[in-house]
UniProtKB/TrEMBL annotation:
It comes from Paenibacillus chitinolyticus. It holds the Pfam family Glyoxalase. Residues 7-131, 152-269 form the VOC domain. CDD domains: PcpA_C_like (cd08347). It comes from the Bacteria. One of its GO terms (molecular function) is dioxygenase activity. PANTHER family: RING-CLEAVING DIOXYGENASE MHQE-RELATED. Keywords: Dioxygenase, Oxidoreductase. The lineage of its organism: Bacteria, Bacillati, Bacillota, Bacilli, Bacillales. This is Ring-cleaving dioxygenase.
Length: 316
């Protein structure tokens, strides 16, 4: 029997400026900074997580802000567009908000849905779509009230170097269902109610290059630690070479690169972001794993100060 993921767990991208990243995703988009930690593999770099009120699976977009990083190029072997879901009837609010904040956008349609597409400050391609399914966010910040707030991921558009192989992996390894085809895109849907719609370009996309403004990896959901071990066996049985299980503090992870060049992760839903901070204080302090605690002073000294702040335009 084919295993089936509930959908996207998180998406991680490279950016340059940490404060500008916070200003955009918390200030403009109204997401909650739920965790301020470091890249465990490069402790001189932040790892920032934004999501709904708790950063629940399917809502968390994460970033490695690296001031000296090169500019990336979006292309094959990457997530091309990140889709966020908003409540039904919320797109007029978001169009007005983006205009107010001088964020250029365009309106488009695919698969009978209306999207507004725009870029963040690093050039990441983003879009908003109204969806009825998925729990509404309870988080309100700046000029974004909870009833208009981003719920989490609507999904993503994948750019592949080998589209047939990527589509086979998404359908037959990750367990999504192929539901429609239109204008050179094929749609796949998972069983979850958030982060559950993935569109894949049918034609090969020229190779992208990593750097600021590009996605590093897309993570899929495993329901618990036992399920995660099963996923590792399942991926390996299907001819891939997954990494050993890695403890990322807030989830366990395995990684593998599918044949179209996109780095896939499978991450556990538990334990979540409240394992080392109370819900009320999520994202307020720099949190380090225990093996880095002896080096806290040195690490903090090397990181730029950041703060979650209301944009000036929202104070007027």
């Amino acid at each position: 029997m084919t295993k089936k993921t509930a959908g996207i767990h998180h998406i991680t991208a490279f950016v340059k400026d940490a404060q500008a990243n916070v200003d955009f995703y918390a200030g403009v988009l109204g997401l909650r900074l739920v965790k301020k930690t470091i890249n465990f593999d490069a402790p001189e770099v932040y790892h920032l997580y934004f999501g709904n009120e708790s950063g629940s699976p399917g809502t968390a977009i994460t970033f490695f802000p690296w001031a000296t990083s090169r500019k990336g190029r979006i292309g094959g072997g990457q997530v091309g567009i990140i889709t966020f879901a908003v409540p039904q009837g919320a797109l007029p609010f978001w169009k007005e908000r983006l205009r107010k904040l001088d964020v250029s956008f365009r309106e488009t349609e695919r698969f009978s849905e209306t999207y507004i597409q725009f870029q963040d400050i690093d050039g990441l391609e983003l879009e908003l779509v109204e969806r009825a399914e998925g729990a509404d966010s309870k988080w309100s910040f700046g000029g974004v009230p909870a009833d208009k707030a981003i719920k989490g991921f609507g999904g993503a558009v994948l750019y592949s170097l080998n589209p047939e192989s990527t589509m086979h992996t998404v359908e037959h390894v990750m367990g999504l269902t192929r539901t429609a085809e239109e204008d050179g895109l094929v749609r796949f849907v998972s069983e979850g109610d958030i982060g559950n719609v993935v569109d894949i370009k049918k034609d090969e996309v020229p190779h992208g290059s990593g750097g600021s403004g590009t996605v590093h990896h897309i993570a899929w959901r495993a329901k618990d630690f036992e399920d995660h071990e099963d996923w590792r066996d399942h991926v390996q049985t299907n001819g891939f070479e997954p990494t050993p299980v890695i403890d990322r503090q807030y989830f366990n992870a395995i990684y593998f690169r599918e044949a179209g060049g996109i780095l896939f992760e499978i991450a556990t839903d538990p334990p979540g972001f409240t394992r080392d901070e109370p819900f009320e204080a999520l994202g307020e302090e720099l949190v380090l794993p225990e093996w880095y605690e002896p080096h806290r002073a040195t690490i903090q000294k090397g990181l730029p100060p950041i703060e979650v702040r209301v944009l000036e335009a929202d104070k007027q």
